[in-house]
Amino acid sequence: MNSVPVLTVKPWRALFDEKFHVVVGNLPPTQEVTLHSLHQSEDTDYWEAFGHYVSDAQGRVTVAKDPSVGGTYEGVEPMGLLWSMRPVPGSRTGLRLRRKKVHTPMVVHISVYSGHMSQGFREQVALASVVTERWYMAPGVRRVNITEGGVTGTLFLPPGPGPFPGVLDMWGGGGGLVEYRAALLASHGFAAMAIIYLFPDHKKNTTIGYPYFENAFRLLQDQPLVATDRIALLGISAAVPVVLSITAYSKTVKPRCCVCISGTHTGRIGATQSIAEAYSRIEKLCKKACRYEKNHIIGRDVFLPIPEDIDLKVEMGRITCPLLLVVGQDDQSNATVESADDMKQMMERAGNSNLLTTLSYPGAGHLIEMPYSPHCKVSSFLMPISRERVLALWGGLTKPHAVAQEDSWEKILGFLREHLCHSVKPHVQSRL
């Protein structure tokens, strides 16, 4: 009687940034098999990844120690079934995998097939399958809608009595309310508030400026479970000049530290300027300076050369709190490498470079997100002011980008703990 293959994934329910362990047993020795992951997004698109393996003398495949010899990833890659995911053949153009409903899990089906397959998975019967869940919200994390003081956002609170260190979380030029990073931060012990600052209604953007961000910061401070004097600002892409501008020039926003991912200090937001005004200028520059490759818009040249005029960039000498920069060296959307170099030089001249930490990753692109998020090199993007839809080239190579996401997230958490938590012990990921 032939033995029945056994597939185990532990933990099958976990936080999004937690590693799982995949093992296949009860196989014949030296059996060729394919491990396959499949996820249907909230937009009903299918994403997959797969690796080719050969069972050992005991008839086992252990993904954490055995190499994939082909597929969407190669080598020993414990999480390759997640970070190498891509849309299945025949999918719509320009897809990007992002979760909107953070109170429900990302469901991933892991299956094992006989032989080394690269297509036709739906037409074959799997030897074994397991359903796994990837969560952004740990048990006990609370989600609170915020609509006060003109601010729209969502506050995520960790379980427990507090007070918790706070993070004001801002995403990029895509606009809208993006919650999943804030939810995961709360799962690690931070009271994190994600806010909208770019609205679909262009007229509303004309009213968004310093007062809006100052109100958001104050709202987070005033939460009963938040430590008033231990709040960080976190921004990615288009939010970076916002974070740097209000940190440098606002009279009321005094963060304990800042984290800036894939951004620039150029195009600073003036004290009386609206987001719509600032971004309209950038979009006009895009129409003049953007390059195109295979119909993909490349934005980094818009920011080059880095201006020498101090009025066109944030005065980095005015930064008085620790600052962490995360840079992808193959960022095609923003001139992050050149911006980071200029920021460092400015801070060295001002005598505050001791506050600066830079993480720079070869082969990483613009969209540096949570660990094990699928690399997105190109996606459809709606320009925030003109509402023109384009295909944006973000850059990056899949494996180096995955390395950057895993390493930077660990160091971002460490940076926030160091400057916000002091004697608080690092939060331990809880198995769900």
Notes on the protein architecture:
The active site is at residues 237, 331, 366. Pfam families: BAAT_C, Bile_Hydr_Trans. This is Acyl-CoA thioesterase 19. One of its GO terms (molecular function) is fatty acyl-CoA hydrolase activity. By secondary structure, the protein is α/β, with parallel strands linked by helices. The protein folds into 2 domains: 6-135, Immunoglobulin-like (Sandwich), CATH 2.60.40.2240; 142-420, Rossmann fold (3-Layer(aba) Sandwich), CATH 3.40.50. The chain is built from 8 helices and 21 strands. The chain has helices at residues 80-83, 180-187, 202-205, 210-222, 240-249, 275-289, 336-350, 398-420; strands at 6-10, 13-15, 21-25, 32-40, 46-54, 61-62, 86-87, 106-114, 128-135, 142-148, 151-157, 164-170, 191-195, 226-236, 257-261, 291-293, 296-298, 323-328, 356-361, 378-382, 389-393. The strands form 5 sheets. The chain has an 8-stranded mixed sheet with strand order 10-11-13-12-14-15-18-19, with helices on both faces. It has a 6-stranded mixed sheet with strand order 2-9-8-4-5-7. Helix 2 links the parallel strand 12 and strand 13. It is globular. Residues 423-431 have low confidence and may be disordered.
Annotated CATH homologous superfamily of the largest domain: Alpha/Beta hydrolase fold, catalytic domain
> Which bin fits the share of residues in helices?
10-25%
Strand order of the largest sheet: 10-11-13-12-14-15-18-19
Radius of gyration: 22 Å
Query: What sequence of helices (H) and strands (E) makes up the elements?
Result: EEEEEEHEEEEEEHEHHEHEHEEEHEEEH
CA-based shape: globular
Query: Can you summarize the main beta sheet?
Result: 8 strands, mixed
State the distance separating the first and last CA atoms: 37 Å
What's the CATH class of the largest domain, please?
Alpha Beta
Total number of helices: 8
Total domain units: 2
Query: In CATH terms, what is the fold-level topology of the largest domain?
Result: Rossmann fold
Going by helix content, strand content and strand pairing, the class is alpha/beta
Mean pLDDT: 93
Q: In total, how many beta strands?
A: 21
Estimate what percentage of residues fall within beta strands: 25-35%
CATH architecture verdict of the largest domain: 3-Layer(aba) Sandwich
Low-confidence stretches: 423-431
